[in-house]
Design a protein that fits this description.
heterodimer; A: 303 residues; mainly alpha; 12 helices; B: 307 residues; 11 helices
Chain lengths: 303, 307
């Protein structure tokens, strides 16, 4: 009511009504979603934790506290010296959790970025050209999707050596497939729209149409899906690291930390599982809620 | 229908071949010999070993032997580490285990997840709905490698109800925890998909017609809404199957169930290419066959699909 009043006043005073873009609409909808907003704050906090953590931690992630080693069950408990306790070999768990958070977030974001760039372009091209090209390109995606990629990824890691680069390459290889399908589906419906027809009629080159007219219209869907991709990339990486095939010592990630902690629960050193697990679960939750919030905000179909 | 099956098979066969060839090329290109060890084997012995396993042959001969071995003799080749066992032995040993808990996980995920989703949709916006949504939202951040230690912590260490590992020929108390750990996240996904599609179906016009006719809700849900609502669930079964096969690796490692995943991880850490390749090809074959079955099922249920 308040809003209409001011709008009415504006009109009465002859001022121009400021238009609201689709993005502004979406932003307003997103900020009304409390769960998504809280999740966004949590994500920012986790990111700050990963960035600032190394500077406030008194220990390095690969530094062994020799006073604790050998009596981790008692001396390695969370305390004033070791905020999150230590791991089995007396390394500070706070510093290691910070390091693991960095790796896991990075894998998630890199995977999502590759998916966005490669998947969107691939899907848009397939969808725009249609026909035989589309058929061939999507068959390739089908083929790649029907392979149990985790095994192929592990194979890659074993054959070419376990390294962060290889992990990124491997995760990048599989992350774009779903995105390509989604982008293609959207492009198919955009292709028949008047503004594309107009661009074709005025002689714009196909690739320019895709980049200038199709891709911007895909962005909403792509952003939503990318937010949901980050947690699944994190899960993939954690899965591989849990098996000891991902990041290698002394580097670590959530999966590796959870694996170490899980191997130690028999000894009653629960903090080794609890802290990494907490960060893993909370971050994943936050990503899912933000993704859902973005979908509600950006996808007009759901309203 | 037969033409449709043939067409799908025609796609499945090249996919399988590509998988085998790609796996083989990767293994062939791998640096180092599987027999290289710290002790340093004399060159003559090394040459003999490679000749024994046919590794001195040209690439095309090797790959032909491998593929024809799989196709004509169902022989996945030797293991380079377990000298007295070949890949078939390992598969025969581990596969029944994987199949047992994999099968039950699949059943649990589909039945519990499907029921949860449908009940939530039918009782939309009641406490039942909220509980179901809460469970499925919570479970999606609990992949198998998170569930496994939590379950062991609760049911083995604190409550002492169930053993935290081992298989013992598949006695029920050894199967329960692996099945729960493996199925939880898929159950959540299935519940979410089923709920969303059931809600959509329930608001459609023909359901309103059915209600207007005065049919009881129970009959509407079971006779009219269930089939179309399950279509998205069916199309998720393929990815779920792949996920479960992948997850079985974690289950085998964490619960020491002795399934196929245990051999896979061991061979990955030992660089036992023969076993890795064999298991990848076997699971790839299974996946492709399963996807084929799902496609057929989908075509059979969905009247809109023309073959």
């Amino acid at each position: 009511m308040f809003a209409t009043k001011t709008a009415a006043q504006d009109l009465a005073e002859g001022q121009a009504v400021r238009g609201r873009s689709l993005w502004a609409d979406a932003r307003a909808r997103f900020f009304r979603n409390r769960a998504a907003l809280v999740s966004l704050v949590i994500l920012v906090l986790v990111a700050i934790f990963a960035i600032v953590g190394p500077f406030i931690s008194p220990w390095r992630y690969d530094e062994i506290d020799w006073n604790v080693l050998g009596q981790v069950d008692t001396a390695g408990r969370p305390s004033a010296t070791h905020w999150f306790g230590t791991d089995r070999t007396g390394r500070d768990l706070f510093a290691r959790t910070v390091q693991g958070t960095q790796v896991s977030l990075m894998v998630g974001i890199v995977g999502a970025v590759i998916a966005v760039v490669v998947g969107t372009l691939y899907g848009a091209i397939a969808g725009y050209f249609g026909g035989r090209t589309d058929n061939l390109m999507m068959r390739i995606v089908d083929v790649l999707m029907s392979v149990p990629y985790m095994f192929v990824l592990i194979l890659l890691l074993v054959v070419f050596g376990k390294s962060m680069i290889m992990l990124f390459v491997g995760i990048g290889l599989i992350s774009w497939l779903d995105m390509a399908r989604i982008a293609r589906g959207q492009t198919l419906s955009l292709r028949g729209k008047e503004f594309v027809e107009a661009a074709v009629a005025t002689g714009v080159a196909p690739l320019t149409i895709i980049l200038r007219h199709i891709v911007p219209n895909l962005l909403g869907v792509v952003i939503v899906y990318a937010t949901l991709l980050v947690p699944s990339m994190i899960i993939y990486e954690s899965f591989i690291s849990f098996l000891g095939l991902g990041v290698q010592e002394p580097l670590t990630s959530w999966g590796a930390l959870i694996s170490e902690g899980a191997g130690e629960i028999v000894n009653g050193t629960l903090w080794m599982l609890a802290f990494p697990l907490f960060f893993f679960v909370v971050t994943l939750f936050a990503f899912f809620f933000v993704g859902d919030g973005l979908r509600d905000a950006l996808d007009p179909k759901d309203r | 229908m037969i033409a449709f099956i043939l067409k799908r098979l025609l796609i499945a066969v090249p996919v399988l071949l590509i998988l085998i060839v790609a796996t083989f090329v990767m293994m062939y290109a791998a640096p180092g010999s599987p027999f290289a060890s710290d002790r340093g084997i004399p060159p003559a012995v090394m040459a003999n070993l490679e000749a024994e396993y046919g590794l001195d042959q040209p690439f095309l001969v090797q790959i032909w032997r491998y593929i024809s071995g799989i196709i004509f003799e169902f022989d996945f080749g030797p293991s380079f580490i377990y000298r007295d066992q070949d890949v078939n032995d390992l598969i025969a040993q581990g596969f029944p285990v994987t199949l047992t808990y994999g099968f039950w996980s699949f059943i649990v995920a589909v039945l519990v997840g499907g029921t949860l989703g449908i009940v939530a949709a039918v009782r939309h916006n009641t406490w039942l709905d909220y509980t179901a949504v809460g469970i499925s939202v919570g479970a999606q951040v609990l992949p198998n490698f998170v569930m496994a230690p939590i379950l062991v912590l609760i049911f083995t260490l604190w409550l002492g109800w169930l053993p935290g590992g081992g298989w013992q020929g598949g006695q029920i108390q050894y199967v329960i925890l692996p099945v729960i750990a493996l199925s939880t996240s898929f159950m959540a996904s299935i519940a979410r998909i089923a709920r969303a599609s059931m809600l959509e179906v329930l608001t459609s016009n023909y359901i309103r017609t059915a209600r207007a006719k005065g049919l009881p809700m129970r009959r509407i849900v079971l006779r009219h809404a269930l089939k179309p609502a399950l279509l998205p669930v069916i199309s998720y079964l393929g990815p779920a199957f792949v996920g479960m096969i992948t997850g079985s690796v974690v289950i085998d490692v964490y619960f020491s169930t002795g399934g196929i995943g245990q051999f896979f991880t061991a061979s990955a850490l030992n660089r036992d290419y023969g076993v890795m390749m064999g298991i990848t090809v076997l699971l790839g074959t299974l996946t492709i066959l399963f996807n084929l079955v799902v496609d057929l099922l989908y075509a059979w249920i969905d009247p809109k699909i023309r073959y």
